[in-house]
Amino acid sequence: MNLSLASEWKKKELDGLLIPLYEEELVFNGLEIPFEQLLETKRFEGKVGSQYILTKMVDGIFVNIVLLGLGKRGDIGYRKLLHALGDGFRTLKKQKVKKGALLFDGGNVATNDTYVKAAVEATIMSDYLFDDFKSKEKEEKESEELTFAIVVEEPDRYTHVFEEAEILATANLVARDLVNQPANVINSVTLAQRVEELGEENGFEVEIKELEEIQALQMEAFLSVARASDIEPRLIVMRYMGDPDSEEILGYVGKGLTYDAGGLSIKATASMVTMKDDMGGSAAVIGAMCAIAEAKLIRNVVAVVAACENMISGSSYRPGDIIGSMGGKSIYIGNTDAEGRLTLIDAMHYIVTEEKVTKVLDIATLTGAALHCTGSAASVAIGTDDQFFDDVNEAFTLSGEQIWRMPIFDEYKELIKHEEADLTNTAGKPGTITAGLFIGEFTGNLPWVHIDIAGTIWSTKEEGILSKGGTGVAVRPLYYLAKA
Ligand code: BES
Ligand code: ZN
Ligand code: ZN
Beta strands of 356-417 (E only): which ranges? Predict the structure, then answer.
């Protein structure tokens, strides 16, 4: 898609128009639309998310027009706005429009920064489709080049907003692509290579630590998980030092299980089949690093991913094993499918002690239980620092994504202890909280937020800005958190 800002829509040979309207006096200057009739027959009233398609001759060309309801003025938040615009854009595309435009001014909606940002993000994100392996569709896609303009009265005023939104949406798609690539394509080694390319393209430093270096760091927990795979693990370190004068470094740790078969505590096929998405946390931090570096934020950010696969072989770690960790604590293995937290604690200990971050956030497709907390509507969080959590929450809201904080009661802290070892990797219910608390043992008491995205990493529907598959969840929030 060729997306741009423009000031004019008339005499441009457009064949598709998307017109957002509030649910109030319906008008549009410059086009004769029978609003009274639409209202009387209740075909279109401007209710939030509603659409009405009509066709008209404009300047001698047959034009498909999609009227898009935004509901009552002031009611629509950023999340719903993205959703409505994404759906509206998709409807236009389904009408086989080749040269379309979104018209904010002219009706009852006046352009502002938020609208332009939402329009750019929604069009780029809802245009995404993972079809890399479909030979026929690929040919078709390459031949149909869609041109789309966001028409506003003074385009120059919105150049910066446009650029930032484009960076954010593109970074979101980087993450979706990483998640959607199957595990026979994206594994620990190829993921590391891809991150090196992205670092070069976007301007952040990448250091890849291979097996011997991981062994030298004594990452026994990470290595225990990685051991059964024929593919070597990689510790991926990304650094962006945009504020060299500051001592502060924001740390991001992303779960990077390029595949999770469960290990000896093997998963059932139905749960295993989508486990290429178990590197969704790493996709989020990688995407965020792309956006942070591309936008040249004045902030220091380091991100770490311990990438490997959880497989089965003669060298698998076993239920009942007691293993060590870089941080020195011993861990009883109750279930080899609770592998994410093992890779994360070594990455966490590394980022705190070796990269000297001053605040740290980890993000992971950690527990199926997260789906029982908030489903796919929100990511689940715990944290020890109210201010830091509030900043994270604000960053999610700005992006139109949702996060919900769970409590840390003293009772839960007892559950991660074990009689034969310092900790157990299977602490029991509430599974999402105890999994997070396990990681919290390795944060060196820094301000810390843990985010479980097991429920939000994957979309089963094409809806709003989402395509089927990876959602690119948290990429934009992690950018805003670094920007704040
Ligand atoms: N990768 C899974 C969690 C997951 C489940 C992600 C569904 C996305 C969708 C994780 O490694 C896992 O298997 N967790 C176990 C932990 C249990 C054995 C303590 C779980 O949630 O069942
Ligand atoms: Zn698992
Ligand atoms: Zn996992």
Answer: 359-364, 379-383, 403-405
Does the pTM exceed 0.85? yes
Atom of ligand 1 nearest to the CA of 310: 11
Q: Which of 366, 418, 452 has the most ligand 1 atoms within 8 A of CB, as the residue to mutate?
A: 366
* Domains observed in the chain: 2-152 (3.40.220.10), 166-483 (3.40.630.10)
Averages of pLDDT over each 10 residues, the chain, 484 residues: 94 95 93 95 97 94 97 95 98 95 93 97 97 78 81 95 98 98 98 98 98 98 98 99 98 99 98 98 99 98 99 98 98 98 99 98 98 97 97 98 98 97 97 98 98 98 98 99 97
Which residues face 452 on adjacent strands?
364, 380
Told to judge if 72 belongs to the known catalytic residues of this protein, a careful annotator would answer no
Which residue in this structure is represented by tokens 């854009």? Answer: 89
Is the Cβ–Cβ distance between 476 and 291 less than 8 Å? yes
Task: Assess whether 267 carries a catalytic annotation.
Answer: yes
Helices assigned H by DSSP within 130-219: 135-143, 159-180, 188-202, 211-216
